[in-house]
Amino acid sequence: MIIAIDGPAGAGKGTIARYLAQKFDLDYLDTGLLYRAVALKVMEEKIDIDNKDSIISIAKIIEVKSLNNPALKEEGTASVASRIAVIPEVRQILTEKMRSFCLNVALPYKGVVLDGRDIGTVVCPEANCKLFITASVEIRATRRTIEMEKSNPSEANQHYLGEIIQRDSRDTGRQSSPLIPANNAVTIDTSELTIAQACALAESYLPEVLLYPEEFQ
Ligand code: DC
Question: Which of 13, 171, 177, 180 maximizes ligand 1 atoms within 8 Å of its Cβ, making it the mutation to test the pocket?
Fold first, then answer.
């Protein structure tokens, strides 16, 4: 069982993914963290953003199991992540790691939820359910500011609107696996929804086998 959730930064896909994962016993991978982990190492090692070969070498050693560094959450890391995410070789390497995460799912999990930009289109085109979560750019920037005030007060004064507009344009405009809804994805605009409403709406699109398992026994 694979649930693919895509969408731009700050639309609420992580919140929805975590909700679905917990409620339906699914393992969860925030695939943006893989791109952020490559970006963080690039920054720490002061590697030039044009040094493709070194960035590709870093992508190879990133591990899905060690994505807990709080610095991964910073907007500066996200911005570099979206810049290295245009490199097709980096995408290919990280995509393989995501697929292997899906293949290695084991009990007690019944399946996986992945969120990102190209899960329904490229990473898991065979997913059982594809959601595309979006919201207006102003709402997404406001949410990001509130989120940062809680988790990272030192960054809270930053204005995220410009950063998010730039990231959107890089993520949707790149040649390799751009951010785009899959043909068979359901789009949910969370601009006017509370978290509870957005999660409930997402849940209503899950396959029946997850929603009513007793009927399939
Ligand atoms: O989901 P996020 O904001 O943590 O992602 C950070 C950046 O990583 C995003 O701007 C683009 C890139 N990314 C990607 O290209 N493909 C994915 N599946 C996930 C993230």
Answer: 171
